[in-house]
């Protein structure tokens, strides 16, 4: 069990984080020091109001660490991006919570901030998926050379994964 210390207003909070035998499982970082640093940065990015008990703060930090692990980062790059994604999501949700304010000015400002953060989050998801090779791939052939006696198809070809028998 690893412990990390987060410093908040007034005092530090010691958070037990189990990196297990393989820190890469949570953070994508095989180096335990980097894994610890990513988790510390994530914990420090969370909004932990002064009125929360240490138990509630600990619960929020461990939930963020679980969200990071749930993204299953495969390497350091994905670990850093996943930590940013969890922090961005947390900040966006906080803005949405604050948008419930009875003050129309604060509501509008918080909705605007939430919209920007959610847009950033969507871009982060897109980058993560692109890094993992998820999504559609398109191949464009620009130049084709057909030798004498060969055959070529001109037009759009859709691969369906099955073959059709030619009619005789």
DSSP E strands, number: 2
| Category by helix and strand content | mainly alpha
Total count of helical runs of at least 4 residues: 5
Number of domains: 1
Oligomer: single chain
Sheet with the most strands?
2 strands, antiparallel
Query: Percent range for helical residues?
Result: 40-55%
Rg from Cα: 24 Å
Question: In words, what does this structure look like?
Answer:
This protein has 168 residues and is mainly alpha-helical. It has one domain (2-131). Helix content is 51%, strand content 7%. The protein has a two-stranded antiparallel sheet. A hairpin with a 4-residue loop joins strand 1 (2-7) and strand 2. Helix 2 (32-45) packs parallel to helix 4 and helix 4 packs antiparallel against helix 5. The N and C termini lie far apart (71 Å).
Brief account:
The protein has helices at 24-27, 32-45, 54-70, 76-98, 104-131, and strands at 2-7, 12-17. The chain is mainly alpha-helical. The protein has one domain (2-131).
């Amino acid at each position: 069990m690893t412990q990390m210390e987060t410093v908040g207003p007034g005092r530090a909070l010691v958070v037990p984080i189990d990196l297990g035998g393989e820190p890469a499982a949570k953070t994508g970082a095989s180096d335990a020091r980097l894994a610890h640093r990513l988790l510390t940065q994530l914990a420090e990015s969370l909004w932990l109001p002064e009125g929360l008990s240490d138990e509630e703060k600990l619960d929020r930090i461990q939930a963020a660490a679980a969200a990071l692990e749930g993204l299953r980062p495969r390497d350091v790059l994905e670990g850093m991006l996943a930590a940013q994604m969890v922090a961005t999501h947390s900040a966006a949700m906080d803005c949405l919570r604050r948008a419930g304010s009875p003050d129309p000015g604060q509501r509008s400002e918080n909705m605007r901030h939430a919209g920007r953060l959610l847009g950033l989050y969507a871009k982060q998801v897109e980058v993560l998926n692109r890094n993992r090779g998820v999504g559609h791939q398109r191949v464009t052939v620009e130049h084709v050379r057909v030798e004498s006696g060969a055959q070529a198809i001109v037009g759009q070809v859709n691969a369906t994964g099955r073959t059709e028998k030619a009619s005789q």
